[in-house]
Design brief:
80 residues; mainly alpha; 4 helices
Length: 80
């Protein structure tokens, strides 16, 4: 299935290239997850499930550690 081009895609790509975080909000079933998976499938974290959101609310430093680890693994994989 082909992805639909979104006007916001280049802006999100630019932020990702600058190692910035992106929080994407919007109505249900509009392609948010599909868009992010097409850009950075290994680094996305979804807060849809309450237990995931609560885990990071209790330990926000864990989110930074996990994302950093995912990015590090991705860079290693990318360059090899």
């Amino acid at each position: 299935m082909d992805n639909i081009f979104r006007i916001i895609t280049p802006q999100i790509e630019a932020l990702i290239k600058r190692n910035k975080s992106v929080l994407l909000f919007g109505a249900r079933q509009t392609g948010k997850t599909t868009l992010l998976n097409s850009l950075q499938p290994d680094v996305m974290v979804s807060f849809v499930l309450p237990e995931v959101r609560q885990r990071y609310e209790k330990h926000p430093d864990r989110l930074i550690q996990e994302i950093t680890a995912k990015v590090s693994r991705k860079k290693i994989t990318f360059h090899s």
